[in-house]
Amino acid sequence: MTIRDNCSLAGRNTFGMDVRADSLIDWASTDELKKALQDIVKPVLMIGGGSNLLFMGDFKGTVLHSTITSIDIIGSTDDRVYVKVGAGVVWDDFVAWCTINGFWGVENLSAIPGEAGASAVQNIGAYGVEAKDVIDTVQTICLADGTERDFSNSECNYAYRQSIFKNELKGQYAVAYVIYALSKMPQPKLGYGALEQEVERLGGPTLANIRQAVISIRNSKLPDPKVLGNAGSFFMNPVVTEQEFDIIRSNYPDVPSYPAPGGIKVPAGWLIEKTGWKGRSLGLAAVYDKQALVLVNKGGATGADVKRLADTIIADVKQKFGVTLSTEVNYI
Ligand code: EPU
């Protein structure tokens, strides 16, 4: 276990915000976390790769980060394999490992920034696949009393970018391991947009080709946080009612949409682009020019700068379309 006091978090969040925490604890095992919890200074913030956070200032409390980086096969049947992944495993290292080992299920989630523990909290998703489609069990530690608790997939209350760990039990359980149930049989999911075309261009639906295709598509649209601070999609795609959708479509017949539980999903990137914000800046924060869903730190922006831009966009989208955008990024 490593404990650092008055520690910079600049390298711990992909927006690159240069803020500090009173204390930062990197825990490498469940025993270490249990020990740390005995006299921890509150409030407590759990982070993974810091790819979904926007720090509004210094964190007056303890930041907990797992450095459990094991990947173990813990069970298998004729067609499935169960893989226990440490919360601190870099997500894309796990996807690469699955690709090499011939395990299907997470290849469409290639190159998503962040760590495996957070994948189960955020229910990360891309190209028609969500983490919840392949999560079997989430193994956690209760921060209040240090007890271990396993959550089955259905107990996690998964929905689009949502889980029990972001809602009902927010801040109460630290993820230690995620058990992923993967397929030994090919199960390509190529239904999303340009993916199939790119996979064909690379020579057909092998695991390696799908991974490569996803990486190329992402790289063409999304900024590298090492170069330009950002947290991927800043907003979630809103789900609107049929009535709201009809109003939008009557003015914009080309509006993209997808069926979703409870209504119709409209891409927030499209809504933002139509307000004219794509590629524009407000101070040191900007809307990425290739994907309007992504807000970037042009260098030296504070959390307040990014929030000011986000709030302005939310107001403009509301005024133009009557739709209220919610952030995917968590303000801290
Ligand atoms: N669009 C625009 N303008 C834009 C961006 C998008 O018109 O600036 C339109 C596109 O033309 C397309 C539609 O919106 O018709 C969807 O765009 P895209 O395929 O790029 O996906 P998205 O809905 O904008 C979501 C996820 C991404 C994920 C992609 C691919 C959310 C909030 N975002 O974006 O996730 O990579 O689908 O599956 O659901 C992330 O969460 O950080 C992330 C990048």
Name the features.
332 residues, five-stranded antiparallel beta sheet, four-stranded mixed beta sheet, 20 strands, binds uridine-diphosphate-2(N-acetylglucosaminyl) butyric acid
Task: Give a brief description.
This protein has 332 residues and is of the alpha+beta class. It is built from 8 helices and 20 strands.
**What's the SSE pattern?**
EEHEEEEEHHEEEEEHHEEHEEHEEEHE
Shape by Cα distribution: globular
Rg computed from alpha carbons, rounded to a whole number of angstroms: 20 Å
Number of strands: 20
In this structure, how is the largest beta sheet organized? 5 strands, antiparallel
Number of helices: 8
Ranges where pLDDT stays below 50 over 5 or more residues in a row are none
Strands in their spatial order, largest beta sheet: 6-7-12-10-11
The molecules bound to the chains, other than polymers, are: uridine-diphosphate-2(N-acetylglucosaminyl) butyric acid
Q: How much helix is in the residues? A: 25-40%
Task: Please characterize this protein's 3D structure.
- The chain is an alpha+beta fold and 332 residues long.
- It is 26% helix and 28% strand.
- It has a five-stranded antiparallel sheet with strand order 6-7-12-10-11.
- Helix 4 crosses helix 5 (207-221).
- It is globular, with a radius of gyration of 20 Å.
- The two termini are 24 Å apart.
- The model has no long low-confidence stretch (mean pLDDT 97).
How does the SSE layout of this entry go?
Blueprint: E1 2-8, E2 20-27, H1 30-37, E3 44-47, E4 53-54, E5 59-66, E6 71-76, E7 80-86, H2 91-101, H3 116-122, E8 125-126, E9 129-130, E10 135-142, E11 148-152, E12 173-183, H4 195-202, H5 207-221, E13 229-233, E14 239-240, H6 242-251, E15 258-260, E16 263-265, H7 268-274, E17 281-282, E18 285-287, E19 294-297, H8 303-321, E20 330-331
Parallel strand pairs: 2-5, 3-5, 4-20
Antiparallel strand pairs: 1-2, 6-7, 7-12, 8-9, 10-11, 10-12, 13-19, 14-16, 15-16, 17-18, 18-19
Helix pairs in contact: 4-5
Bound molecules: uridine-diphosphate-2(N-acetylglucosaminyl) butyric acid (EPU).
